[in-house]
Write a structure and sequence with these properties.
The complex is a heterodimer of chains A (429) and B (141).
Chain A lengths: L15 E6 L2 H9 L8 E4 L6 E4 L1 H5 L8 H10 L3 E4 L2 H15 L5 E6 L2 E5 L7 H16 L3 E6 L2 H13 L6 E3 L3 H9 L11 H9 L5 H5 L3 H7 L2 H10 L17 E11 L2 H21 L2 E12 L8 E12 L2 H15 L6 E13 L11 H19 L34 E3 L1
Parallel strand pairs in A: 2-4, 7-8
Antiparallel strand pairs in A: 1-6, 1-7, 2-3, 5-6, 9-12, 10-11, 10-12
Helix pairs in contact in A: 4-5, 10-11, 12-13
Chain B lengths: L41 H5 L6 E6 L14 E5 L9 E6 L2 E10 L2 E5 L8 E2 L6 E11 L3
Antiparallel strand pairs in B: 1-2, 2-7, 3-4, 3-7, 4-5, 5-6
Amino acid sequence: MGRCDECDSSIMSDIFALVDCNNFYASCERVFQPSLQHRPVVVLSNNDGCIVARSNEAKALGIGMGTPYFKAKDVIEKNNIAVFSSNYALYADMSNRVMQILSQFTPEMEIYSIDEAFLGLDGIQENLDSYGREIRKRVLQWTGMPVSVGIAKTKTLAKIANHLAKKSKKAGGVLDLTRARYITAALERTDVEDVWGVGRRIAKKLKRVGIMTAQQLSQTDIDWIQKTFSVMTVRTVLELRGQKCFELEEVPEPNKNITVSRSFGKEIETVEQLENSLTQYVSRAGEKLRSQEQYAQVLTIFAMSNRFGKDSYYNSASCIFETATDSSLDLVGAVGQLVKKVYREGVKFKKAGVVLSKLVPKDELQLNLFADRESIDRDRRLMQVLDRINERGKQVSFASEGVVKPWQMKSEHKSQCYTTRWDELVRVG
Amino acid sequence: MSKVDKIYKPKLSKQALPVFTARVSAGFPSPAADYEEGQLDLNKHLVKNPPATFFVRVAGDSMEGAGVHDGDLLIVDRSIEPKSGKVVIAVLDGQLTVKRLKIYRGKYSLVPENENYPIQKITKDMEFEVWGVVTNVIHPL
């Protein structure tokens, strides 16, 4: 339904902050090439096929998300737009840095995607707006990554606050919407399609009956919503009204990401135990992914110590697959490589989990032209067999092996791996 | 209805058992056991704030006088406050450069450590910002 049913306990929070990076991929490139600050930037998908990320200036020039590269070449040349192939190593590393910093501001955090996180801000004594500005300032100073912060009493409202924080110059990147009197104005300025959990399909239906803004949606009769759409949309409307329906790790869009996490009854201390747990979780996540007929581009693992301990520890690591995958072999292999990054000796781990994000439905998947078709099909058949066996109740487990397949791909405009290769560091004179 | 004549209580014997109070270790007792510490970790020593630390490669000799040579590795911490006298990575008109930062009476300049290079005074029309503070230089011999 949207609730992460693998979480043994949802984290309770009454104040949510949604922090997300502005133009994430383009911003990553700009940190290491500051001369790009004034040039529009676009980032290409696998095999330099289409444009998957655009800086604000590039958006303003009318370049749509997913435009095939060859179609945009004229606009690109005319406007001196900088073009980059996806640099997965760089993006994953920068994402981890941002998440590490955000985790310093709260013990309750949900990594929502590679560049967004929800923070639970209960118990923050200071002014929420100031706190949001501290977050923004620290992330910007420590990593060069600009982020926007939206704060509210429900996740849906926090998303709206974040959206407005980005758009409005006056907000300066941070918007606190916990006060009721500002919410109406904010909802009036928000198009119904931009509400979290309202997709194009639902927005079309709403607009047909005159519901154009988030404010109007919040005032719509609940019974009608339930009859016309679903219980999920009902929760979205209630959240617009300020009634919390989604806790951390609960989402209105069940397919946006897949999280499997658990608190350990007894704390674990060895890297083998941590790897075993994460392997189990990621295998389970892989099953869900396949049952939804989707592929995942990003895998994030995280692990933390007891939240209330003196030496609290949190770490996360991400891996971006060059081609979105639904194969547990890839996922388990990635876990094996990532676990060393989150493990630290001496830490007693209380909770760990995996998040699959940047999900792509099977029919939208662009397979690499040079991909080894045979091995993909063989993988898929293997996955189907495993899923059937698991369904019947016999658990099949993996030995932790497997490598993300290094297919040959066109990547003519890739920047250097500034943070993951010794021979590709940025050079400074 | 039967009558209950007797109720038997089980006899619990209270037998004392010896308890070992001293721990018996399985291996050879080490005289150094009281003095063991963790191994020296160069990573922890050099990288104080991981999410804010980046590595950068030096190109050129503008900072030779400071012991920073072409090809050296610099450890840069973006969370350290850039104070006058610190070697920093700065962004000047879109280019990254490594220089010593001098702040005098509110005015900034970037100072090289090689007489072949000029001191760069920062004026209002220039685009300038500090990218990070250099904490260590690693120079292979």
